[in-house]
């Protein structure tokens, strides 16, 4: 979402060009700082700190194209799948930076930031866990308790699975993100996948399958899921691929919740065994 008010058009301008990318090593720096044993010309090109490296990586892929002839990772020298992946990541970083228009108050769409933060809270784990626990406590029907209990289990499962993937992949959040989220775990310094996107997708499916039947409300649920995902990128919290993968993961997590569904009989069995 490029805006004429964008502050540094030179840094983030340009357009993504599909095809060969000769800066594959730049994406490695997204997850870990360059190795001390890296050749000096790499260190020089990257900048010595990871933030500079990530800022360079989010420049337009077109800007990076003819700049790596001395690196030995020029296009066509690696396997084609790696080139394709590098190009995809280059487009991802470029697009995410273009869309990160609410990353801080003085960003081009900074005035919308409070609204985006409201969406952030609406998809945060704490309100969802607390709200579900409250409904579970207040529910006076067995069917209601069953649904709420399974939603609660799904939310816990989501936190665990997202935590595991974040800890394994360890992709840093975009350089333009301001880390001012409330109540985060240590793995939440990583961005892949977006926990808000997994939760929104899983809870969205759950709501549509078990709780929300009226058509206008179902549309609202879908709209909320989409807006939560979009707000992650606009706030600069995530790259586009973090959110896309998060949606897919949340969609699959709902299948898992259905497979592991705790029925009253299962619960009675479990409680009976432990008694
Ligand atoms: C009771 C309990 C264990 C609550 C934990 C809830 C909690 C702190 C969830 C983390 C939510 C969060 C900030 C996720 C990060 O989302 P991203 O979309 O930025 O990956």
TrEMBL record:
Residues 146-258 form the Phosphatidic acid phosphatase type 2/haloperoxidase domain. The gene is PLPP6. It is found in: Endoplasmic reticulum membrane; Nucleus inner membrane. Belongs to the PA-phosphatase related phosphoesterase family. Its main location: endoplasmic reticulum. The keyword Repeat does not apply. It is a multi-pass membrane protein. One of its GO terms (molecular function) is sphingosine-1-phosphate phosphatase activity. It catalyses: (2E)-geranyl diphosphate + H2O = (2E)-geranyl phosphate + phosphate + H(+); (2E,6E,10E)-geranylgeranyl phosphate + H2O = (2E,6E,10E)-geranylgeraniol + phosphate; (2E,6E)-farnesyl phosphate + H2O = (2E,6E)-farnesol + phosphate; presqualene phosphate + H2O = presqualene alcohol + phosphate. CDD domains: PAP2_containing_2_like (cd03391). This is Polyisoprenoid diphosphate/phosphate phosphohydrolase PLPP6. The chain crosses the membrane at residues 147-169, 206-227. Residues 67-79 have a biased composition (Low complexity). GO terms for cellular component: endoplasmic reticulum membrane; nuclear inner membrane. It comes from Oreochromis niloticus.
């Amino acid at each position: 979402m490029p805006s004429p008010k964008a502050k540094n058009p030179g840094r983030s301008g340009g357009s993504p060009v599909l095809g060969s990318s000769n800066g594959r090593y730049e994406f490695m720096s997204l997850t870990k700082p360059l190795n001390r044993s890296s050749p000096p010309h790499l260190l020089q090109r990257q900048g010595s700190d990871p933030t500079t490296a990530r800022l360079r990586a989010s420049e337009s892929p077109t800007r990076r194209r003819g700049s790596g002839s001395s690196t030995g990772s020029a296009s066509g020298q690696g396997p084609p799948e790696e080139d394709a992946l590098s190009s995809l990541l280059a487009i991802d970083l470029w697009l995410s930076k273009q869309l990160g228009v609410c990353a801080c108050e003085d960003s081009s769409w900074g005035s919308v930031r409070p609204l985006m933060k409201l969406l952030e809270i609406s998809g945060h784990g704490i309100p969802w866990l607390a709200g579900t626990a409250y409904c579970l406590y207040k529910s006076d029907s067995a069917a209601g308790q069953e649904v709420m209990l399974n939603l609660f289990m799904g939310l816990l499962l989501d936190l665990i699975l997202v935590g595991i993937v974040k800890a394994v992949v360890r992709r840093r959040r975009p350089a333009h993100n301001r880390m001012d989220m409330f109540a985060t775990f240590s793995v939440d310094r990583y961005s892949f996948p977006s926990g808000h996107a997994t939760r929104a997708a899983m809870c969205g499916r759950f709501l549509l399958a078990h709780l929300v039947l009226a058509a206008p409300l179902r549309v609202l649920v879908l709209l909320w899921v989409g807006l939560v995902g979009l707000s992650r990128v606009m706030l600069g919290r995530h790259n586009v691929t973090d959110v896309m993968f998060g949606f897919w993961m949340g969609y699959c997590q709902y299948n898992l919740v259905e497979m592991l569904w705790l029925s009253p009989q299962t619960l009675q069995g479990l409680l009976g065994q432990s008694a």
